[in-house]
Amino acid sequence: MPARTRGEHALISPEDLRRIAAWSRDLKPEEFEEARRGISLKSYGKGNYICHVGDRLESWTGVAAGLVKMSTTSKEGKSATLAGLRAGAWFGEGTVIKAELRRYDLVALRDTQLALMRRSTFLWLFEHSAAFNRFLVHQFNERLGQFIALAENERMLDSTARLARNLAWLFNPILYPGQSLTLTISQEELGLLAGMSRQMANQGLAKLAGLGLLEVGHGAVTILDLDRLARYEG
After folding, report:
1. How far apart are CA 106 and CA 79, in angstroms?
2. CATH among 2.60.120.10, 1.20.1740.10, 2.120.10.30, 1.10.3300.10 for 7-146
3. What sign has the CA pseudo-torsion 178, 181, 184, 190?
4. CB-based contacts of 110: which residues, under 8 Å, 6+ apart?
5. Chain segment 121-179, per-residue pLDDT in tens
């Protein structure tokens, strides 16, 4: 069953849309209003499932606030994280275009608010907006690179390198344009995203900090060298 939501607002404000959706800032005025009228906000509590594999979630989805884990589970019961999604992320465009069932689970790792765009609005923008399509092309390209790298990481990298790659994706400048290089995130949340224990995540962060790639604060991580972090192999 889809997760119970905590609340929904019928319409997003222009200021909030510009804040959470970098792609909206390049739209023409009529395109921007069409997008805004088609988006509602929903809130999910920590640990709630947003959707399961096989659910029909027809909205194109943005993370307005919070942290989401995208994962899948094999027939043998082994779970694998596909991506971590922080505020500013938009995803699910392929599923919306193809009108198919979701192929992954989505769970809120902390209290989270999602922006949900109606499929009809998404398809209107897809048909009418050059700026929106440019964004989608870049989005598809980055996500493809992310999932190719995920397959390589699982086979070739140790735990610290996997942590580095997962963390670097949360600061990808194409997926998260204009975002700060400091992210409020716990070691437990990082462990869940990288598929490791909190203790292993703590050890990996300490090693990466010792190499000058990042700085660990109280419940936060600041990236010092994103390029080296993304290429770290141990």
Report:
1. 12
2. 2.60.120.10
3. positive
4. 46, 66, 67, 189
5. 999 999 999 999 999 999 998 888 777 776 665 556 788 998 998 899 999 998 898 88
